[in-house]
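Q: what sequence does this backbone want?
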């Protein structure tokens, strides 16, 4: 598949999706202040961001509310307290994780909600359950996406079957998700080509959600962008689980659409992100995440290694390598 545009090209189909609250919430258990969330909302409007993801729509029966901030559950009421009627060009999204959301109870009609887009996260083996949520949300009036997580662990045959099934559904956007930050640009090009062929066949948008374990989240995002992927996930200052994600400030600096403005993002980093880091909230590229990414493993061991303030990297690498061999 040929590239879509060059470095100086303007692509009106591009949509930037801010995931700072949702993916970043995995770092601090979603305990953001109201000021942080309101200021990020205003920042995204001023910066020209297309979508802001406010968190998970997790089930309160499955998760103890006392252990998380409110954006783990991202209710319509809490979102509306920030956005009001959201009389702006910025659209609002939440994520429904397969098996962790009571979607029939907690997702109401779009006419009664400030949310525009429901993003459904699934592994490849739970796609039928994910499509049930997609169908429900579509019928309620929402835009929908299906985010296939940990795609680096899936084989081509399973992925081909999954894309054919998803393509025939009512979903609007299909996401490539490098959950472990293990994929390289060459692999991303091949995956983007496969997803885009499905998108062209069935009239779907294609998105990318990259993790930065090997410092490739930005590179992989713009690589797939040049192939024709149009929904681009990012977080301010790369804030996200473990090594974090594609940094919004890098992405906006790359895109050629004059609607995007990097200056509000820089001000938000000055006023809020630096404060979080000073308070001890930890995320971003580091050796432990490099190692789990290199071995295509979930970053949970690296997260614990970092929390324990360990620096015995060689021993950790041997542990991961031995673990991977069984």
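A:
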């Amino acid at each position: 598949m040929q590239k879509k545009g060059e470095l100086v090209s303007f692509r009106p189909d591009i949509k930037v999706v801010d995931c700072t609250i949702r993916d970043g919430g995995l770092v601090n258990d979603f305990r953001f202040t109201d000021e942080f969330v309101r200021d990020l909302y205003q920042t995204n409007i001023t910066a020209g961001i297309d979508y802001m993801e406010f968190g998970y729509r997790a089930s309160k029966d499955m998760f103890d509310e006392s252990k998380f901030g409110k954006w783990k559950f991202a209710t319509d009421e809490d979102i509306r307290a920030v956005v009001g009627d959201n009389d702006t060009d910025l659209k609002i999204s939440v994520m429904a994780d397969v098996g962790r959301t009571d979607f029939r109870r907690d997702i109401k009609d779009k006419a009664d909600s400030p949310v525009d887009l429901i993003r459904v996260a699934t592994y490849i083996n739970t796609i039928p359950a994910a499509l049930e949520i997609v169908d429900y949300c579509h019928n309620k009036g929402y835009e929908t996406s299906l985010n296939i997580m940990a795609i680096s662990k899936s084989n081509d045959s399973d992925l081909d079957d999954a894309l054919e099934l998803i393509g025939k559904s009512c979903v609007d956007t299909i996401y490539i998700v490098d959950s472990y930050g293990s994929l390289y640009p060459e692999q991303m090009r091949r995956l983007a080509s496969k997803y885009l062929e499905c998108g062209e066949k069935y009239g779907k948008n294609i998105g990318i959600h990259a993790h930065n374990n090997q410092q490739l989240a930005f590179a992989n995002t713009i690589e797939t962008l040049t192939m024709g992927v149009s929904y681009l996930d990012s977080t301010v200052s790369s804030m996200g689980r473990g090594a974090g994600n594609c940094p919004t400030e890098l992405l906006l600096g790359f895109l050629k659409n004059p609607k995007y403005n990097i200056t509000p993002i820089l001000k938000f980093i000055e006023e809020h992100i630096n404060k979080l880091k000073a308070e001890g909230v930890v995320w971003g590229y580091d050796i432990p995440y490099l190692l789990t990414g290199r071995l295509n493993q979930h970053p949970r061991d690296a997260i614990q290694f970092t929390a324990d303030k360990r620096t015995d990297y060689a021993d950790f690498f041997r542990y991961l390598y031995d673990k991977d061999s069984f």
